[in-house]
Amino acid sequence: MLELRPGCECCDKDLSPESDEALICSFECTFCIDCATNVLSGKCPNCGGELVARPRRPAIKLADNPPSTKRVFNPACGQQDRG
To answer: Per the record, which residues fall in region Disordered (predicted)?
Structure first.
């Protein structure tokens, strides 16, 4: 089950479980659409994988399957060599 991480790893913007601005890689690294597009050029700086739209969990399922509260934040993400 997806963790639905609460924020962008690059800029720390809040990304609610129902956000249509959240993108993830296959390892669930999570970024806002702004950072994914303008800073990371659509590639995860951690694994090099593509960033795709994160599925939204139906609200009725969130009570029994809550999103993660663990934030991952790396303010240097846009400065890393993404070779």
So the answer is: 60-83
Query: Domains in the chain, please, with CATH?
Result: 1-56 (3.30.40)
Q: How far is CA 33 from the centre of its chain?
A: 9
DSSP, res 7: B
Question: In this structure, are residues 40 and 32 in contact, taking their beta carbons and an 8 Å threshold?
Answer: no
Q: Exposed (0-12), middle (13-18) or buried (19+): which is 39, by Cβ within 10 Å?
A: middle
Query: Which residues of the chain are under the pLDDT cut of 70?
Result: 80-83
- At which residue do the structure tokens 């934040």 appear? 73
52 pairs with which residues across the strands? 24
